[in-house]
Amino acid sequence: MTATTGATPSAQPERPGRSDGVCSEFTVFTKIKPGEADALREDLAALASGSDDAAARAALRQIGTLHDARHVIFDNDTQFMFASVFDGSWDTYIDDFAKTVIGAHFDTIFSHSEGFPGISDPGVKDWFVAHQAPAKSFVSSYPDLTVQQIWKDHRVDEAFEEVLDTPEFRAALDNPANAELLATPAFQKLLEEAAA
To answer: What whole-number distance in Å separates Cα of residue 103 and Cα of residue 19?
Structure first.
């Protein structure tokens, strides 16, 4: 598996970052404004506590491209890191988040960083690029699965598990009329995977 540099081609200049299959990484390092580390810490705690969790989760669901994200304060409260993994192009990723409640969260969190222009500022992408440090290595455990595909696989798995637990399914397994289907390698593999 080879990680590649760059994002999906767009009208914008090439964005830094590495990709592995459909997944790309985004890591930003900023300087915290003097004396604002505690305020940043409080804003991050409020974000983590879920005071706006339902709206944020709905926005994440609507966007449907974020695998994970994390925030770190380090270097004696002088530096801040935001890192995430997402599907699709870098520009679309930034645009999508700016249009939701997540954009307001970005404004709150990054307002403690020196020079942050605000998520709706036309220069915000240039600001992020100026503070972005691409990973030297980036590997995804599931490089060919988008967030949407993972969610679908989870829904199908839950539905299949419900079917497996029904008396009707057990009766179908015991029905001699289904013996030929049950003996196929594909069906046997399905049962093995379900049992794993």
So the answer is: 23
